Amino acid sequence: LKLAVLISGGGSNLQALLDAAADPEFPARIVCVGSDTDAPGLAHAEAAGVPTFVVRPRDYDDREEWGQMLSAAIQEHGVGTGPEPGLVVSAGLMRILPAGFVREFSPHLINTHPALLPLHPGAHAVRDALAAGATETGVTVHVIDEGVDTGPVLRQARVEIRAGETEEELHERIKQLERPLLVQTVRDIALGELDLAEAARAAP
Ligand code: GRF
């Protein structure tokens, strides 16, 4: 299974996927890594010899055009939408993918989110869970639909919230579960043990 991974930050989830894909037995390989900015995590891809690209929203008149260019870059690297679809993995992309982009790749696009969706959608999930005084939170891998963090849930993992911990401390503890969960979810999709079309149909 060919993966296009999209990031905006440090890319520790990308690194986990790169590490997994280094094993020739792993049923997926990362054929490109894209970002909306000069993400530090792009260095992980470069170190692994994986092609990278940056498609900046500010270079385009509107979000849909940005999405079209992002789609073109992904497809140029062999992650297609045709009979042999690849998989787009949003792993810390701090952008909402435009509707046209989502429709083009759906359901072969997934996102990882540091909360137990539908709780705490959006860009500040960890902070929101802390602010809500929750005793636990977690991470969700889901199919991306045209909403914000609203697509069908594929996998979740829970983590307790410790009194007094900071957003950064909690987020790192979430990531300790998130990285293997994302790798496992990609593996299950690649092996056909998790059917994205079925998951998308089954969603309420
Ligand atoms: C991850 O926790 C992801 O769920 C969230 O942003 C974080 C990215 O972390 N959207 P990294 O860049 O993979 O380290």
From TrEMBL:
Key words, A-Z: Purine biosynthesis, Transferase
HAMAP family registered for this protein in UniProt: PurN (MF_01930)
Family listed: Belongs to the GART family.
Pathway linked to the protein: Purine metabolism; IMP biosynthesis via de novo pathway; N(2)-formyl-N(1)-(5-phospho-D-ribosyl)glycinamide from N(1)-(5-phospho-D-ribosyl)glycinamide (10-formyl THF route): step 1/1
Name of the molecule in the record: Phosphoribosylglycinamide formyltransferase
Protein's UniProt keywords contain Transferase: yes
Species for this entry: Leucobacter muris
Class of this enzyme: transferase
Domain Formyl transferase N-terminal: from-to ranges: 2-186
Active site: H113
Annotated (6R)-10-formyltetrahydrofolate binding sites: R63, M94, R95, I96, L97, N111
Reactions the enzyme catalyzes: N(1)-(5-phospho-beta-D-ribosyl)glycinamide + (6R)-10-formyltetrahydrofolate = N(2)-formyl-N(1)-(5-phospho-beta-D-ribosyl)glycinamide + (6S)-5,6,7,8-tetrahydrofolate + H(+)
UniProt-annotated binding residues for N(1)-(5-phospho-beta-D-ribosyl)glycinamide: G11, S12, N13
Lineage summary: Bacteria, Bacillati, Actinomycetota, Actinomycetes, Micrococcales
Site annotation Raises pKa of active site His: residues: D149
